[in-house]
Amino acid sequence: MSTPLNPKRTVAELKELRSLTGDENGAQRVAFTPTWVKARAWLKKKLEAIPAEVHADAAGNLWTTLAGESKRSLLIGGHIDSVPNGGWLDGCLNLLAGVEVLRRISAQYQGKPPVTIRLVDWADEEGARFGKSLFGSSACSGNLNMDEARVLQDKQGVRLPDVLKEIGVDFDRVKESGKELEDAAAYLELHIEQGPVLLDLELPLGAVLGTFGVERHALTFHGQAAHSGSTPMNRRKDAFLAAAKMSPEIYRIAERQGGVCTIGSCTTRPGIVTSVIEECWITLDQRHLDATALARMLQEAKAASERFAKEGNVRVSWERLWQIEPVLFHPELIELCAEAIAETCGKTHRLPSGPLHDAAEVARAGVPTVMMFVQSLHGISHNKIEDTKEEHLELCVEAFDRLAHKAMKWVEG
Ligand SMILES: [Zn+2]
User: Fold this and answer.
1) Which one of 30, 69, 196, 323 is most buried, by most CB atoms within 10 A?
2) Which of 324, 342, 358 is the endpoint of a domain?
3) 262-273 pLDDT, tens per residue?
4) Per-residue pLDDT for 2 more than 60?
5) In this structure, are 77 and 89 located in the same domain?
6) From ligand 1's centre to the CA of 384, what distance in Å?
């Protein structure tokens, strides 16, 4: 394979984008803002120079096409938008590595590869302004809830449909974006890990198995307020005692089932120093890559809450706040990804993704999908301290290009 691939150029372009659209607090490319528009115009120039055809779809996603002998398409995705005060790599690393892959393929096949290669910059992956992430990719996959999205507002009360209008997108037609997936045969996405798993294993790269399913619930323990001096210990209906027992229990559940569980908040009533707690409200977030194991985690938590309530002579009620199924990536593409990583740096590792990504939406639309993770220093993201070693950035571009090469052959069949 002739490789005019230049990973150092990707690192240089990431720095160029950082100085163009960031400040001392980090990246400022919040979707649909003037800085985001500026970042996109910068990206578009690079893409048109390849040369490749560039257009925005009905949902504001930016598609770049290198038309091949066959219409069957290999897609590569990322997002140039960031959270406010965000990191310099989240989302744009995927795109700029994709640009480099497109350059390599265009040069290798004199502009006409055997299959069509497309790069997509998803609109508003982060949902930083309207509180709804994966806007562009969920419009494209058909999973966007139109009634919910129509009434989304930012902190100033500006509605999402009005903001979309300003960038030339008609809210009522965003799902027409779905036709972009017609000839999609595979989808690849590179991303920084945003967690510490690869860092702890001292590995630069990993093949991603899929994204976690999530069960999010609110639990209320109902007891009885009583005087803290006059109520004997054996006569109390202490809502907090039952709720508090859930805290060590979720660690045992997570350990047994191999998932993650979090009690993220705890509110008590009446919440005064001289009263037994009458009502205790906690939230529980449970995640697992395996749907059956996730269901078991939920069932075990429910059983435990009933047991603790009974022990303490209180009641418990549950309310589901949100839920999403796990999304599994394509086994053959995971294999190709692991191979590409092993060929690049000797060792590979397979891991699930805790956060959701646009790739999950594309997979839900039925397109065979895989993601590659590169190590994050500090395991931190959505923060200006987000970083990855420069040598790892270069390695990930190289490995991702190898994956693109393998996936292209796979699509070719
Ligand atoms: Zn991202």
Assistant:
1) 30
2) 324
3) 999 999 999 999
4) no
5) yes
6) 14
Give Cα 408 distance to the centre of its chain. 24
Contact by Cβ (8 Å): 382, 213: no
Task: Of 26, 6, 153, 136, give the one whose Cα is nearest residue 83.
Answer: 26
CA 45 vs. chain centroid, Å, equals 27
Same domain? For 258 and 219 the reply is yes
Whole-number Å distance between alpha carbons of 351 and 112:
35
Q: What is the pLDDT of residue 3?
A: 55
In this predicted model, what pLDDT tens digit does every residue of 34-55 receive, in sequence order? Answer: 999 999 999 999 999 999 999 9
Take residue 364 and report the two structure tokens written for it. Answer: 């839900």
Say whether the peptide bond before residue 352 is cis (omega within 30 degrees of 0). no
- Distance from the alpha carbon of residue 399 to the mean position of ligand 1, in angstroms: 19
Same domain, 196 and 60: yes
* CA–centroid distance, residue 18 to ligand 1 (Å): 15
| Mean pLDDT of the residues in the chain | 96
* Domain encompassing residue 285: 213-324
* Distance of CA 113 from the midpoint of ligand 1 (Å): 28
DSSP β-bridge partners for residue 74 = 117, 186
- pLDDT score of 1 more than 50: no
Position 282: which residue type?
I
> How many whole angstroms from 299 Cα to the centroid of ligand 1?
32
Measured in Å, residue 218 CA sits from the centre of ligand 1 at 28
Ligand 1 centre distance from Cα of residue 357 (Å): 6
Structure tokens at 137: 């990719």
Q: Are 270 and 305 in the same domain? A: yes
Compute the average pLDDT of residues 243-252. 98
Distance 124 CA to ligand 1 centre (A): 10
Q: Which of 143, 147, 148 is nearest to 132 (CA)?
A: 148
Contact assessment for residue 60 and residue 164, using Cβ atoms and an 8 Å cutoff: yes
How far apart, in whole angstroms, are the C-alpha atoms of residue 331 and residue 337?
10
CA–centroid distance, 191 to ligand 1, in Å, is 7
Instruction: Please indicate, yes or no, if residue 314 is contained in any of the structural domains.
Output: yes
Q: Which residues pair with 115 in a beta bridge?
A: 70
DSSP 8-class letter at 114: S
Q: Which helix (H) or strand (E) holds 247?
A: helix 239-257
What distance in angstroms lies between residue 213's CA and the mean position of ligand 1's atoms? 18
Residue 345: HSE in the Cβ half-sphere, 13 Å Cα cutoff: 24
